[in-house]
Amino acid sequence: MLKRLIFSLVVVLMAGAMVSCGSEGGDTATAEARQSVTPNQDAANTPQPQPATPATQAPTGPTTSIAFEETEYDFGSIKSGEKVRHAFKFKNTGSEPLIISNAKGSCGCTVPSWPREPIPPGGEGEIMVEFNSKGKRGKQNKKVTLTANTEPPQSFLYIKGEVIPDQTQQQQKTTKVTQ
Hints:
Blueprint: H1 2-19, H2 26-36, E1 66-68, E2 72-79, E3 83-92, E4 100-105, E5 110-113, E6 124-132, E7 138-148, E8 154-164, H3 167-178
Parallel strand pairs: 2-8
Antiparallel strand pairs: 1-3, 3-6, 4-7, 5-6, 7-8
Helix pairs in contact: 1-2
């Protein structure tokens, strides 16, 4: 009981030393308080945090393979505010049905859509990727990550180009500021 009271007092003092504003020698007081604390026996019984699970886990069922006609598309130069759509065509080159479980763009401006039904061996499909350039300018490089029952479980598609500021939008902003 007395040990817990002393330990609690030391913790409160340490917290006060860390929070205090503008006090000189605060670092020294904190260091002294740390040295006076003895390890708590209960800490040995405390469960240790487990490492995070990997973001991509290997498929649990049978795997297949996927082949894309292209994995990168350059949309060239577009004006800010325009949308670009591109279909990445693929083929299931394996011997099992291809199941695409997820497709995710690197940001909210890049939105993929993909077939939800299994693609049979030898079957073909497409991933439609839409890039919205609203609020963007300059060179753009976006990535779409596909997760499927393939080995490795992730495939990557890239869309790139340059967004040129729309002069009419720039003039409207200038006009609004000067009015």
